[in-house]
Amino acid sequence: MDIKEQYESLTVELKKTIPFKVFPIRELVQELRNKGHEITLKTELIVKDVYNSGDITGIVCMIEEKEDEALACALTHLEIPRSHPLSKEIIAYQKKRNKRIQKLNQKNWN
User: Fold this and answer.
1) What pLDDT is recorded for position 109?
2) More exposed terminus of the chain, fewer Cβ within 10 Å: N or C?
3) How many domains does the chain contain in total?
């Protein structure tokens, strides 16, 4: 299975578990604080939808912020609770995706 198929398969499976809770990683907390959001590593976020944006961005999650607002962020910027039925698959995706991002960045900047 190629990367495109892997992303699409996980996206389809994730959609079946919506809504689900996640937590932000440190970099996302810093970014959101810079934009005026009150958030910590322990802030529970709710994923309302997921999209496969391909190899450029990977799997993107729509996070409910307020009733009429949403925030989009990469699945790699979220911590998934071990209780989620796809936690192992998500963690495996995140590890592979982070390695892929490093490899793509090296190719583009060297």
Assistant:
1) 56
2) C
3) 1
